[in-house]
Amino acid sequence: MFHVKLHGSDAMARGADEKLVSRRINLPRRVVEKPLRQVGKRLLMALSVLFLTVLIVWLDRDGYHDNANEQVDLLDCFYYATVTLSTTGYGDIVPYSDSARLINILVITPLRVLFLIILVGTTLEVLTERTREEWRLNRWRKNLREHTVVVGFGTKGRSALQTLLTTGLSKEQVVIIDPSSKVIDMANAEGFTGVIGDATRSDVLLRAELHKARQIIIATQRDDTAVLVTLTARQLNRGAKIVAAVREEENAPLLRQSGADAVITSASAAGRLLGLSVLSPSAGTVMEDLIQQGSGLDLVERPVNRAEVGKSVRETDDLVVSVLRGHRLLPYDDPHASPLQLTDRLITIVRAAPPTSPPVILGPAQ
């Protein structure tokens, strides 16, 4: 039986509190006004056209004839403007003077066309909005392959994603899962696709197309949630690389047993960095530089090139820290690390530079 030590509260557990109506996908949007505000503005425009028409008819009321009482009052002006702009035209009130007819030709008719454009445009936008969103969603699903899924968009998830973006990962290849609609709205504002829902449920993960993902980052605040998400994700995608974060170090083996390829203990890692900085502030600065991708020194993983095959670790151009041979991670001073083989991968420290191809971010050795 698994025993998971709990700590703190989790954003992934807030779904019930926020009473989410549905688990849906939010694609990044262009900055546009809210639909209700757009409809309100168009309604004001339509009313403005109506009142302008009433004013024009009222000022030239002597040029109009009412078949009922031969006089045109304010109510008749509103009536005439309404039936004219709506193209109903009963014919009981008609312009008979030359000036009234000329104004109808030059002013009232263009206002009628403008009024119809406002009404038809609003109706078409309401009717086509859903179709347009469905089309975008279907196209997104069709084109999404080998992407990155980030579960939890808090401090850890955001920092991990920022590191990946510095290596060349595009925002279009990222899907964020979080139960909070506010968090997903913020992710959309930054250009990411978001899925609102509980990531421990397989249907939510499938909405994020996790079964087609290349790598999965699990950055929840509760360790038990991380275990459940990892189990579900590994069941849906056997080949993806899963990297998870836990608060308590004793829960790290559970994450590995659940299917995580790499587990980061956030509290212990921060504590070790603090301790190292106390012992040697310069060493702490170097470590901080290494884990901050894209500036200063970077820790990267790369394959062995043919020119390096058969050489020792110290004969390479880069500063090699470890050699990954199969499933074994050999330190640079291990006698078995040299000579290098073509199938090896090197963990090296290099000077940060604009990458020609996205390097592989190093996870902790298992």
Describe the structure.
- With 366 residues, the chain is α/β, with parallel strands linked by helices.
- The chain has helices spanning 15-18, 35-59, 74-85, 98-143, 155-166, 181-189, 202-207, 223-236, 252-258, 266-279, 281-291; strands at 25-26, 64-66, 93-95, 148-151, 174-178, 193-196, 215-218, 241-246, 262-265, 297-303, 319-325, 328-331, 345-351, 360-361.
- Strands 1-6-5-4-7-8-9 form a seven-stranded mixed β-sheet, sandwiched between helices. The protein has a five-stranded antiparallel β-sheet with strand order 12-11-13-10-14, covered by helices on one side. Strands 2-3 form a two-stranded antiparallel sheet.
- Helix 9 (252-258) links the parallel strand 8 and strand 9 (262-265).
- Helix 2 packs antiparallel against helix 4 (98-143) and helix 10 (266-279) packs antiparallel against helix 11 (281-291).
- The longest helix is centred in the N-terminal third of the chain and has 46 residues, at 98-143.
- Mean pLDDT is 79; it is low at 7-22 and 356-366.
What's the short version?
With 366 residues, the chain is an alpha/beta fold. 44% of the residues lie in helices and 17% in strands.
Give the count of helical stretches: 11
SSE-based structural type = alpha/beta
Rg value = 33 Å
SSE ordering: HEHEHEHEHEHEHEHEHEHHEEEEE
The major beta sheet can be summarized as: 7 strands, mixed
Distance between the termini: 22 Å
SS elements, strand count: 14
Beta fraction of the residues?
Answer: 15-25%
Portion in helices: 40-55%
Strand order of the largest sheet: 1-6-5-4-7-8-9
In round numbers, the mean pLDDT is: 79
Based on CA inertia axes, which overall geometry fits? elongated
Low-confidence stretches are 7-22, 356-366
